[in-house]
Amino acid sequence: MPATPFERAISLDAADPLAVYRERFVGSLASSTEPVLAYLDGNSLGRPLKSTAARLAAFVTDSWGDRLIRGWDEEWLQLPTTIGDELARATLGAAPGQTLIGDSTTVLLYKVIRAALDARPGRTEIIVDSDNFPTDRYLVEGIAAERALTVRWVETSRRSGLTADLLAAALSEQTAVVVASHVAYRSGYLADVPALTRLAHDAGALIVWDLCHSAGSVETRLDDWGVDLAVGCTYKYLNGGPGSPAFAYVRRDLLGELRQPIWGWLGHADPFAMGPGYTPAPGIRSFQSGTPPVIGMLAMRDMIALIGEVGVEAVRAKSVALTSFTIELADEVLAPYGVEVASPRASAERGSHVTLDHPDFREIVAELWRGGVVPDFRAPEGLRVGLSPLSTSFTEVAVGIAAVRDALERRAA
Protein backbone atom coordinates (compact mmCIF):
# COMPACT_ATOMS: atom_id res chain seq x y z
CA MET A 1 0.00 0.00 0.00
CA PRO A 2 1.49 3.37 -0.99
CA ALA A 3 2.57 5.68 1.81
CA THR A 4 0.25 8.57 2.62
CA PRO A 5 1.40 12.18 2.22
CA PHE A 6 1.89 12.44 5.99
CA GLU A 7 3.90 9.24 6.14
CA ARG A 8 6.13 10.47 3.31
CA ALA A 9 6.53 13.84 5.03
CA ILE A 10 7.56 12.22 8.31
CA SER A 11 10.09 10.08 6.45
CA LEU A 12 11.51 13.12 4.63
CA ASP A 13 11.80 15.07 7.89
CA ALA A 14 13.59 12.16 9.53
CA ALA A 15 16.13 12.07 6.69
CA ASP A 16 16.53 15.86 6.44
CA PRO A 17 20.09 16.87 7.45
CA LEU A 18 18.88 20.42 8.13
CA ALA A 19 15.93 19.43 10.36
CA VAL A 20 17.91 20.17 13.52
CA TYR A 21 18.06 23.87 12.66
CA ARG A 22 14.28 24.29 12.91
CA GLU A 23 14.58 24.29 16.68
CA ARG A 24 16.53 27.56 16.51
CA PHE A 25 13.47 29.48 15.31
CA VAL A 26 10.73 31.03 17.43
CA GLY A 27 7.47 29.12 16.94
CA SER A 28 8.96 26.18 15.07
CA LEU A 29 6.98 22.95 15.03
CA ALA A 30 9.53 21.59 17.49
CA SER A 31 7.98 23.96 20.06
CA SER A 32 5.13 22.71 22.25
CA THR A 33 3.50 26.15 22.21
CA GLU A 34 3.23 26.40 18.43
CA PRO A 35 0.21 28.61 17.56
CA VAL A 36 0.47 28.00 13.80
CA LEU A 37 -0.08 24.53 12.32
CA ALA A 38 1.79 25.25 9.09
CA TYR A 39 3.67 28.45 8.28
CA LEU A 40 3.99 28.58 4.51
CA ASP A 41 4.70 32.27 4.06
CA GLY A 42 8.42 32.43 4.85
CA ASN A 43 8.91 33.93 1.38
CA SER A 44 7.12 37.04 2.64
CA LEU A 45 8.21 37.23 6.28
CA GLY A 46 10.70 34.82 7.82
CA ARG A 47 10.37 33.47 11.34
CA PRO A 48 12.68 35.10 13.91
CA LEU A 49 15.55 33.15 15.36
CA LYS A 50 15.51 32.63 19.12
CA SER A 51 18.97 34.16 19.35
CA THR A 52 17.60 37.40 17.93
CA ALA A 53 15.59 38.10 21.08
CA ALA A 54 18.79 38.06 23.14
CA ARG A 55 20.62 40.17 20.55
CA LEU A 56 17.95 42.88 20.55
CA ALA A 57 17.66 42.92 24.34
CA ALA A 58 21.42 43.19 24.74
CA PHE A 59 21.54 46.06 22.27
CA VAL A 60 19.05 48.06 24.33
CA THR A 61 20.83 47.51 27.64
CA ASP A 62 24.45 47.39 26.52
CA SER A 63 25.23 48.94 23.15
CA TRP A 64 22.54 51.63 23.24
CA GLY A 65 21.91 51.94 26.97
CA ASP A 66 25.55 51.80 28.07
CA ARG A 67 27.54 53.24 25.21
CA LEU A 68 24.88 55.80 24.20
CA ILE A 69 26.02 58.18 21.46
CA ARG A 70 29.54 56.77 21.62
CA GLY A 71 28.11 53.74 19.80
CA TRP A 72 28.17 55.65 16.52
CA ASP A 73 31.94 56.02 16.55
CA GLU A 74 32.56 52.61 18.07
CA GLU A 75 30.42 50.49 15.73
CA TRP A 76 27.13 51.75 14.37
CA LEU A 77 28.37 53.91 11.50
CA GLN A 78 30.22 50.92 10.07
CA LEU A 79 27.29 48.49 10.29
CA PRO A 80 25.88 49.14 6.78
CA THR A 81 29.11 47.93 5.18
CA THR A 82 30.08 45.42 7.89
CA ILE A 83 26.76 43.56 7.64
CA GLY A 84 26.76 44.11 3.88
CA ASP A 85 30.03 42.20 3.62
CA GLU A 86 28.68 39.44 5.89
CA LEU A 87 25.65 39.10 3.62
CA ALA A 88 27.78 39.17 0.48
CA ARG A 89 30.02 36.40 1.77
CA ALA A 90 27.24 34.11 3.03
CA THR A 91 24.61 34.44 0.31
CA LEU A 92 25.50 36.68 -2.64
CA GLY A 93 28.77 35.32 -3.94
CA ALA A 94 30.32 38.78 -3.77
CA ALA A 95 33.67 40.04 -2.54
CA PRO A 96 33.82 42.67 0.24
CA GLY A 97 33.29 46.35 -0.43
CA GLN A 98 30.37 46.08 -2.87
CA THR A 99 27.31 45.61 -0.64
CA LEU A 100 25.53 48.11 1.60
CA ILE A 101 22.59 47.73 4.02
CA GLY A 102 20.17 50.62 4.36
CA ASP A 103 16.92 52.19 3.10
CA SER A 104 13.95 50.25 1.78
CA THR A 105 13.96 48.12 -1.36
CA THR A 106 12.06 50.85 -3.17
CA VAL A 107 14.54 53.60 -2.28
CA LEU A 108 17.58 51.48 -3.15
CA LEU A 109 16.06 50.40 -6.46
CA TYR A 110 15.41 54.06 -7.26
CA LYS A 111 19.03 54.92 -6.44
CA VAL A 112 20.61 52.20 -8.56
CA ILE A 113 18.25 52.58 -11.54
CA ARG A 114 18.84 56.33 -11.66
CA ALA A 115 22.59 55.87 -11.30
CA ALA A 116 22.60 53.32 -14.12
CA LEU A 117 20.60 55.58 -16.41
CA ASP A 118 23.01 58.46 -15.88
CA ALA A 119 25.85 56.13 -16.86
CA ARG A 120 24.20 55.52 -20.25
CA PRO A 121 23.53 59.06 -21.56
CA GLY A 122 21.74 59.37 -24.89
CA ARG A 123 19.90 56.06 -24.53
CA THR A 124 16.15 56.41 -24.18
CA GLU A 125 14.64 53.11 -23.04
CA ILE A 126 14.24 51.09 -19.84
CA ILE A 127 13.23 47.45 -20.16
CA VAL A 128 11.05 45.73 -17.55
CA ASP A 129 8.74 42.76 -17.80
CA SER A 130 4.98 43.02 -17.34
CA ASP A 131 4.83 40.57 -14.43
CA ASN A 132 7.72 41.96 -12.43
CA PHE A 133 6.99 42.96 -8.85
CA PRO A 134 4.77 46.07 -8.67
CA THR A 135 7.40 48.23 -6.95
CA ASP A 136 9.87 47.56 -9.76
CA ARG A 137 7.31 48.36 -12.45
CA TYR A 138 6.02 51.48 -10.72
CA LEU A 139 9.54 52.78 -10.15
CA VAL A 140 10.47 52.25 -13.79
CA GLU A 141 7.34 54.07 -14.93
CA GLY A 142 7.98 56.94 -12.52
CA ILE A 143 11.64 57.31 -13.45
CA ALA A 144 10.81 57.16 -17.16
CA ALA A 145 8.25 59.94 -16.70
CA GLU A 146 10.75 61.95 -14.65
CA ARG A 147 13.46 61.63 -17.30
CA ALA A 148 11.26 61.66 -20.45
CA LEU A 149 12.30 58.10 -21.33
CA THR A 150 10.38 55.17 -22.82
CA VAL A 151 9.43 52.00 -20.95
CA ARG A 152 9.95 48.95 -23.17
CA TRP A 153 7.59 46.34 -21.76
CA VAL A 154 8.34 42.65 -22.16
CA GLU A 155 5.14 40.63 -21.92
CA THR A 156 5.74 37.62 -19.68
CA SER A 157 3.40 34.89 -18.52
CA ARG A 158 2.43 34.98 -14.86
CA ARG A 159 3.34 31.29 -14.79
CA SER A 160 6.92 31.80 -15.93
CA GLY A 161 9.14 34.87 -16.25
CA LEU A 162 11.75 36.77 -18.24
CA THR A 163 13.65 34.44 -20.58
CA ALA A 164 16.70 35.08 -22.76
CA ASP A 165 14.62 34.94 -25.95
CA LEU A 166 12.15 37.51 -24.65
CA LEU A 167 14.87 39.89 -23.49
CA ALA A 168 16.88 39.54 -26.70
CA ALA A 169 13.85 40.58 -28.72
CA ALA A 170 13.39 43.75 -26.63
CA LEU A 171 16.98 44.98 -26.48
CA SER A 172 18.27 47.64 -28.86
CA GLU A 173 20.86 50.37 -29.15
CA GLN A 174 18.41 52.58 -27.23
CA THR A 175 18.31 50.33 -24.16
CA ALA A 176 19.90 52.05 -21.19
CA VAL A 177 18.86 49.79 -18.31
CA VAL A 178 17.14 46.44 -17.83
CA VAL A 179 15.30 45.77 -14.56
CA ALA A 180 14.66 42.09 -13.82
CA SER A 181 13.88 39.75 -10.92
CA HIS A 182 16.04 36.73 -10.12
CA VAL A 183 12.94 34.88 -8.87
CA ALA A 184 9.52 35.99 -10.11
CA TYR A 185 7.34 36.97 -7.16
CA ARG A 186 4.23 35.27 -8.53
CA SER A 187 5.34 32.09 -10.31
CA GLY A 188 8.68 31.51 -8.60
CA TYR A 189 10.41 31.35 -12.01
CA LEU A 190 14.20 31.38 -11.56
CA ALA A 191 15.78 33.58 -14.22
CA ASP A 192 19.06 32.72 -15.92
CA VAL A 193 21.04 35.63 -14.47
CA PRO A 194 24.32 35.02 -16.35
CA ALA A 195 22.60 34.68 -19.73
CA LEU A 196 20.37 37.74 -19.32
CA THR A 197 23.25 39.80 -17.95
CA ARG A 198 25.39 38.92 -20.99
CA LEU A 199 22.58 39.92 -23.34
CA ALA A 200 22.22 43.30 -21.66
CA HIS A 201 25.97 43.89 -21.80
CA ASP A 202 26.13 42.88 -25.47
CA ALA A 203 23.57 45.59 -26.17
CA GLY A 204 25.63 48.14 -24.21
CA ALA A 205 23.09 48.35 -21.38
CA LEU A 206 23.34 47.91 -17.63
CA ILE A 207 21.10 45.46 -15.76
CA VAL A 208 19.59 45.80 -12.28
CA TRP A 209 18.62 42.55 -10.54
CA ASP A 210 15.92 42.34 -7.88
CA LEU A 211 16.98 39.60 -5.44
CA CYS A 212 14.07 39.95 -3.01
CA HIS A 213 12.71 36.46 -3.61
CA SER A 214 16.07 34.71 -3.95
CA ALA A 215 18.57 36.09 -1.42
CA GLY A 216 19.05 33.48 1.26
CA SER A 217 17.31 30.61 -0.54
CA VAL A 218 18.99 30.35 -3.96
CA GLU A 219 22.67 30.10 -4.80
CA THR A 220 23.79 33.48 -6.13
CA ARG A 221 27.21 34.36 -7.57
CA LEU A 222 27.03 38.05 -8.38
CA ASP A 223 30.75 38.53 -9.00
CA ASP A 224 31.12 35.45 -11.20
CA TRP A 225 28.01 36.33 -13.18
CA GLY A 226 29.20 39.87 -13.94
CA VAL A 227 26.10 41.44 -12.40
CA ASP A 228 26.13 45.24 -12.52
CA LEU A 229 23.73 46.16 -9.73
CA ALA A 230 21.36 44.31 -7.43
CA VAL A 231 18.92 45.12 -4.66
CA GLY A 232 17.07 42.84 -2.27
CA CYS A 233 15.04 42.88 0.91
CA THR A 234 16.04 41.17 4.16
CA TYR A 235 12.73 40.26 5.83
CA LYS A 236 11.99 37.18 3.69
CA TYR A 237 14.61 34.41 3.62
CA LEU A 238 17.07 36.58 5.58
CA ASN A 239 14.68 36.86 8.55
CA GLY A 240 15.47 40.47 9.40
CA GLY A 241 11.97 41.19 10.68
CA PRO A 242 9.10 43.41 9.47
CA GLY A 243 10.46 46.39 7.55
CA SER A 244 14.11 45.46 7.99
CA PRO A 245 16.32 47.50 5.63
CA ALA A 246 17.24 46.32 2.16
CA PHE A 247 20.67 45.83 0.61
CA ALA A 248 22.33 47.10 -2.56
CA TYR A 249 25.20 45.54 -4.51
CA VAL A 250 27.27 47.58 -6.95
CA ARG A 251 30.02 45.84 -8.92
CA ARG A 252 33.40 47.14 -7.85
CA ASP A 253 34.49 48.58 -11.22
CA LEU A 254 31.26 50.62 -11.43
CA LEU A 255 31.65 52.27 -8.04
CA GLY A 256 33.84 55.05 -9.35
CA GLU A 257 31.56 55.65 -12.34
CA LEU A 258 28.05 55.63 -10.88
CA ARG A 259 26.55 58.41 -8.81
CA GLN A 260 23.29 57.83 -6.99
CA PRO A 261 20.78 60.69 -6.90
CA ILE A 262 19.93 61.04 -3.18
CA TRP A 263 22.81 63.00 -1.74
CA GLY A 264 22.64 62.67 2.03
CA TRP A 265 25.20 63.65 4.60
CA LEU A 266 26.39 60.13 5.41
CA GLY A 267 27.12 59.45 1.77
CA HIS A 268 29.58 62.36 1.82
CA ALA A 269 33.32 61.70 1.80
CA ASP A 270 33.68 63.62 5.08
CA PRO A 271 30.20 63.80 6.64
CA PHE A 272 31.26 65.41 9.90
CA ALA A 273 33.01 68.28 8.16
CA MET A 274 29.48 69.45 7.32
CA GLY A 275 30.87 71.81 4.74
CA PRO A 276 29.45 73.23 1.53
CA GLY A 277 29.02 71.09 -1.56
CA TYR A 278 28.70 67.34 -1.92
CA THR A 279 31.65 65.03 -2.51
CA PRO A 280 30.60 61.37 -2.60
CA ALA A 281 32.36 58.93 -0.33
CA PRO A 282 34.66 56.44 -2.01
CA GLY A 283 33.35 52.97 -2.71
CA ILE A 284 29.99 51.50 -1.80
CA ARG A 285 29.40 54.07 0.94
CA SER A 286 28.60 56.60 -1.79
CA PHE A 287 25.23 54.83 -2.10
CA GLN A 288 24.37 55.68 1.50
CA SER A 289 22.23 58.73 2.16
CA GLY A 290 20.90 59.15 5.69
CA THR A 291 21.38 57.71 9.15
CA PRO A 292 21.82 53.91 9.17
CA PRO A 293 18.78 51.98 10.51
CA VAL A 294 20.84 50.36 13.25
CA ILE A 295 18.10 48.49 15.15
CA GLY A 296 16.58 47.30 11.88
CA MET A 297 19.87 45.71 10.84
CA LEU A 298 20.44 43.61 13.94
CA ALA A 299 18.10 40.65 13.45
CA MET A 300 19.39 39.72 10.01
CA ARG A 301 22.88 39.10 11.41
CA ASP A 302 21.67 35.90 13.09
CA MET A 303 20.19 34.49 9.89
CA ILE A 304 23.19 35.53 7.80
CA ALA A 305 25.44 33.73 10.27
CA LEU A 306 23.21 30.64 10.19
CA ILE A 307 23.25 30.49 6.39
CA GLY A 308 27.03 30.86 6.52
CA GLU A 309 27.19 27.97 8.99
CA VAL A 310 24.94 25.67 6.96
CA GLY A 311 26.09 26.74 3.49
CA VAL A 312 23.83 28.19 0.82
CA GLU A 313 24.26 25.06 -1.32
CA ALA A 314 22.64 22.95 1.41
CA VAL A 315 19.91 25.55 1.83
CA ARG A 316 19.18 25.40 -1.88
CA ALA A 317 19.07 21.59 -1.86
CA LYS A 318 16.45 21.66 0.93
CA SER A 319 14.49 24.31 -0.99
CA VAL A 320 14.37 22.11 -4.09
CA ALA A 321 13.22 19.14 -2.01
CA LEU A 322 10.45 21.17 -0.35
CA THR A 323 9.13 22.68 -3.57
CA SER A 324 9.28 19.31 -5.34
CA PHE A 325 7.29 17.70 -2.52
CA THR A 326 4.74 20.53 -2.70
CA ILE A 327 4.20 19.98 -6.42
CA GLU A 328 4.00 16.21 -5.89
CA LEU A 329 1.25 16.64 -3.28
CA ALA A 330 -0.58 19.26 -5.34
CA ASP A 331 -0.76 16.87 -8.28
CA GLU A 332 -1.87 14.01 -6.06
CA VAL A 333 -4.25 15.72 -3.64
CA LEU A 334 -5.41 19.02 -5.16
CA ALA A 335 -5.55 18.46 -8.93
CA PRO A 336 -8.86 16.51 -8.63
CA TYR A 337 -10.42 19.76 -7.34
CA GLY A 338 -9.24 21.78 -10.33
CA VAL A 339 -6.05 23.20 -8.79
CA GLU A 340 -3.25 23.91 -11.26
CA VAL A 341 0.45 24.27 -10.57
CA ALA A 342 1.38 27.78 -11.75
CA SER A 343 5.12 27.49 -11.11
CA PRO A 344 7.84 25.85 -13.23
CA ARG A 345 8.01 22.10 -12.73
CA ALA A 346 11.73 21.91 -13.47
CA SER A 347 13.59 22.59 -10.22
CA ALA A 348 16.37 24.42 -12.09
CA GLU A 349 13.77 26.99 -13.15
CA ARG A 350 12.12 27.41 -9.74
CA GLY A 351 12.93 29.43 -6.63
CA SER A 352 11.70 28.59 -3.13
CA HIS A 353 7.96 29.04 -3.51
CA VAL A 354 5.24 27.28 -5.47
CA THR A 355 2.09 29.00 -6.72
CA LEU A 356 -1.12 27.04 -7.08
CA ASP A 357 -4.09 28.45 -9.03
CA HIS A 358 -7.80 28.04 -8.32
CA PRO A 359 -10.71 30.52 -8.67
CA ASP A 360 -11.62 30.16 -4.97
CA PHE A 361 -8.20 30.69 -3.47
CA ARG A 362 -8.75 34.28 -2.31
CA GLU A 363 -11.50 33.16 0.06
CA ILE A 364 -9.74 29.90 0.93
CA VAL A 365 -6.52 31.62 1.99
CA ALA A 366 -8.48 33.81 4.42
CA GLU A 367 -10.15 30.67 5.78
CA LEU A 368 -6.81 28.87 6.13
CA TRP A 369 -5.31 31.74 8.11
CA ARG A 370 -8.17 31.52 10.62
CA GLY A 371 -7.36 27.82 11.05
CA GLY A 372 -3.64 28.27 11.66
CA VAL A 373 -2.39 27.40 8.15
CA VAL A 374 -0.60 30.40 6.64
CA PRO A 375 0.24 30.59 2.92
CA ASP A 376 -0.47 33.82 1.05
CA PHE A 377 -2.59 34.92 -1.91
CA ARG A 378 -1.53 36.68 -5.09
CA ALA A 379 -4.16 37.90 -7.53
CA PRO A 380 -5.89 36.82 -9.61
CA GLU A 381 -6.16 33.28 -8.17
CA GLY A 382 -2.77 32.20 -6.80
CA LEU A 383 -2.09 30.55 -3.45
CA ARG A 384 1.65 30.78 -2.79
CA VAL A 385 3.32 28.09 -0.74
CA GLY A 386 6.43 29.86 0.54
CA LEU A 387 9.12 27.51 1.80
CA SER A 388 11.92 28.90 3.93
CA PRO A 389 14.35 25.97 3.91
CA LEU A 390 15.86 26.28 7.37
CA SER A 391 12.57 26.75 9.25
CA THR A 392 10.01 24.80 7.20
CA SER A 393 9.39 21.07 7.58
CA PHE A 394 7.97 18.59 5.10
CA THR A 395 5.24 17.87 7.65
CA GLU A 396 4.16 21.51 7.49
CA VAL A 397 3.79 21.15 3.73
CA ALA A 398 1.65 18.03 4.16
CA VAL A 399 -0.50 19.77 6.80
CA GLY A 400 -0.94 22.80 4.57
CA ILE A 401 -1.88 20.87 1.44
CA ALA A 402 -4.33 18.74 3.42
CA ALA A 403 -5.96 21.91 4.78
CA VAL A 404 -6.32 23.29 1.25
CA ARG A 405 -7.90 20.01 0.13
CA ASP A 406 -10.34 20.07 3.03
CA ALA A 407 -11.35 23.65 2.24
CA LEU A 408 -11.94 22.75 -1.42
CA GLU A 409 -13.91 19.67 -0.40
CA ARG A 410 -16.20 21.72 1.83
CA ARG A 411 -16.93 24.06 -1.06
CA ALA A 412 -17.66 21.18 -3.40
CA ALA A 413 -20.09 19.53 -0.96
Automatic annotation (TrEMBL):
Q: Which domain of life is it from?
A: Bacteria
- Species, as recorded: Subtercola vilae
Per the record, GO CC terms? cytoplasm
**UniProt KW Transferase keyword:** yes
Q: What is its EC number?
A: 3.7.1.3
| Family that this chain belongs to | Belongs to the kynureninase family.
User: Record's InterPro entries?
Assistant: Kynureninase, PyrdxlP-dep_Trfase, PyrdxlP-dep_Trfase_major, PyrdxlP-dep_Trfase_small
Biological role: Catalyzes the cleavage of L-kynurenine (L-Kyn) and L-3-hydroxykynurenine (L-3OHKyn) into anthranilic acid (AA) and 3-hydroxyanthranilic acid (3-OHAA), respectively.
A Pfam family recorded for this sequence: KYNU_C
Which cofactors does this gene product need?
pyridoxal 5'-phosphate
**KW Hydrolase (keyword) present:** yes
- Look up the record and give one Gene Ontology term from the biological process aspect: NAD+ biosynthetic process
The record describes its quaternary structure and partners as: Homodimer.
Which pathway? Amino-acid degradation; L-kynurenine degradation; L-alanine and anthranilate from L-kynurenine: step 1/1; Cofactor biosynthesis; NAD(+) biosynthesis; quinolinate from L-kynurenine: step 2/3
**Stretches assigned to coiled coil:** none
The GO terms describing molecular function are: kynureninase activity; pyridoxal phosphate binding; transaminase activity
Q: Which UniProt keywords apply?
A: Aminotransferase, Hydrolase, Pyridine nucleotide biosynthesis, Pyridoxal phosphate, Transferase
The protein's name: Kynureninase
Q: Which reaction does it catalyse?
A: L-kynurenine + H2O = anthranilate + L-alanine + H(+); 3-hydroxy-L-kynurenine + H2O = 3-hydroxyanthranilate + L-alanine + H(+)
